Amino acid sequence: MSKIPILILAAGASSRMRGADKLMQTIDGEALIHRTARIARDTGQPVLVALPPAPHPRHEAIADLDIRRIDVPNAAEGMNASLRAGLARLPEDAEAVMILLADLPEITTADLRKVADAFRPDSDTLIWRGATDNGKPGHPVLFSRSLFGDIARLTGDSGAQSVVSAHKDRVALIPLPGLHALRDLDTPEDWAAWRAGNSPES
């Protein structure tokens, strides 16, 4: 497998949780941020986690894992502050980077490996993206090294969507099971519905 570090974006404020931290919500007794970091680590790839500045409970929640924690002092700017901070700390020999949101409760190590295994450094494709079986794009999103500069110039809270849009004809969708690529839990209602076995809107 090519060397593809996984950058987990976990510096957001959980503003829609009305005072709770969605990444500290538990699944089978495990904090969501720990679950996300653990399944990323289990791919065997380097893992970097963009976090609010320490001290913060999210740091403590993943302290037992052999991963790199990155403080994002300007996290309030939005997601792109985390992207820039993470890219600046990638291993020099990284051929690509996998961007993984921290709030995907159904994503698995096998899913991450499937997206990573689709990467071909000599391909015309520049972006590989997890998707549903019917082709709805989601996460994670893997970017070829040739796009690192474009991502590093992003500002605000748009994520790398503008980079994806600029290269939409060079994106490969990788189908993942069920709603693994889409399911996120942003509100207390989402969490309650998901735990009850329902399907919150994503």
Describe the structure.
The protein is an alpha/beta fold and 202 residues long. The protein is built from seven helices and nine strands, in the order E-E-E-H-E-H-E-H-E-H-E-E-H-H-E-H. Strands 5-4-1-6-8-7-9 form a seven-stranded mixed β-sheet, with helices on both faces. Strands 2-3 form a two-stranded antiparallel ribbon. It is globular, with a radius of gyration of 16 Å. The two termini are 31 Å apart.
How do you describe this structure in short?
This is CTP:molybdopterin cytidylyltransferase MocA. Residues 7-169 form the MobA-like NTP transferase domain. This protein has 202 residues and is an alpha/beta fold.
Relevant terms:
202 residues, 7 helices, 9 strands
CATH superfamily: Spore Coat Polysaccharide Biosynthesis Protein SpsA, Chain A
Tally of individual helices: 7
Instruction: Provide the number of structural domains.
Output: 1
Count of DSSP strands:
9
What is the residue-averaged pLDDT? 92
Q: Which structural class matches the secondary elements?
A: alpha/beta
User: What overall geometry do the principal axes of the alpha carbons give?
Assistant: globular
Helix and strand element order = EEEHEHEHEHEEHHEH
Distance between the termini: 31 Å
GO molecular function: nucleotidyltransferase activity
Protein name: CTP:molybdopterin cytidylyltransferase MocA
Pfam families: NTP_transf_3
Keywords: Magnesium, Nucleotidyltransferase, Transferase
